Amino acid sequence: MVWNQLLSLEQVVSLPWTGGRVLHGIDRSWKIAGDLPPEHGWHQFSVSGSRRASWLGAGEPEAALGQRGKIVTGYLVEDRLIPDGVVVKEEVHEVFAQGRPAWLVEPGLDRFARAAAVRHRDGKLIYLQQEFPLGPEGDVLEAFQDRRDSIDDIAGVTPALHLAFLWHTWRRRLTEAERRRLERLAQLEERRREQEARLLRFHDQAWNRAVKRGQAVIDFETAARDALSVSGAELLDERPARRRDERIVQFRFRNRRFECVVHAPTLRIVDAGICLEDHVTGERGDNRFTLESLPAVLEEAIRTNRLVVFRHVDG
Q: pTM surpassing 0.90?
């Protein structure tokens, strides 16, 4: 067969593809022309002596790749393979550095699973298959699940398996620390939202009070009724007082009738009708309250049996 016939000879091969337009076989490489595979994996390609390849579709792993390439065995840790024969070091960042990325690992493998990979033409480790356990893997898994810090008492643990245990333990601690950090952030965010909600409620209440104050100038009766209803009191009557800017308000609270004098434009109490005097300083505290808050003062005085009424209302 002459050289031009060799160049035109096409065949279909199944090879691992891990990205890019260069396709590597066992002992030669091709440049992919046309469409690339949609994802990493084993794919079928049409190749020829011209070193050009065309993607055909999904393929199956080829046993020949493992028969002719260098096989590396060890333990899978996430997407890395910790090879047999490594040296144990307690520094976990050095632990993971001893592992090598493993490509095309089948999903669903057990923790501390042994695996075999082949060193590909481009230097990458291509996963081949799961290997039989050596014996202590089950005991190491139980130690991990029991959150033990050491597996020194387990016989037959190889350095690679020891490193896999150290890595999984360290990784779990990092994950749990990150979870706690996120939980703290979530709690802080929840507190921030609660504070924001309280602030909004405060502004709403302040706005409502301002509206009521403005309303009191136009329609004092409606403003007084709304203000008293905040604490569950009921407006009975209101009338002018001696001063032009004051009103006498009668209301019912806890099945009792009360009377007070209110500064009409602000709904601030002028005379509460009950004793609010500080017996130490002699200072009256009537004007510290508004028509909204006065019933709450009555509630406390009734509860503590300290209510002294000055302005009595018949009925």
A: no
Residues 6+ apart with CB under 8 A from 177: none
> Tokens 């081949």 — which residue?
128
Contact status, residue 151 vs residue 168, Cβ threshold 8 Å: no
- From first CA to last CA, the distance across the chain in angstroms is 125
Buried b or exposed e, range 220-232, using 16+ CB within 10 angstroms: beebbbbbbebbe
pLDDT at 203: 47
d(CA 201, CA 232): 19
Give the list of residues 6+ apart from residue 274 with CB closer than 8 angstroms, or none: 258, 297, 298, 301, 307, 308, 309, 310, 311
C-alpha–C-alpha distance, residues 101 and 20, integer Å? 17
* Segment among 166-175, 237-246, 249-258, 303-312 with least mean pLDDT: 303-312
Flag whether pLDDT at 201 surpasses 80: no
Q: What is the mean pLDDT of residues 103-132?
A: 83
C-alpha to C-alpha distance for 106 and 16, rounded to whole angstroms:
13
Distances (CA, A) of 259 to 32, 155, 293: 95, 89, 14
Segment 31-79, tens digit of pLDDT: 888 888 888 888 888 887 778 888 888 888 776 666 667 888 888 888 8
CA distances from 93 to 77, 79, 286 (A): 13, 15, 71
Written as six digits, the tokens of 192 are: 């921030």
Q: Nearest-CA neighbor of 57 among 23, 26, 13, 100?
A: 13
In terms of Cα–Cα distance, which of 50, 6, 30 is closest to 121? 30
Domain residue ranges in the chain? 3-64, 69-170, 220-303
Per residue in 175-184, pLDDT (tens digit) is 888 888 888 8
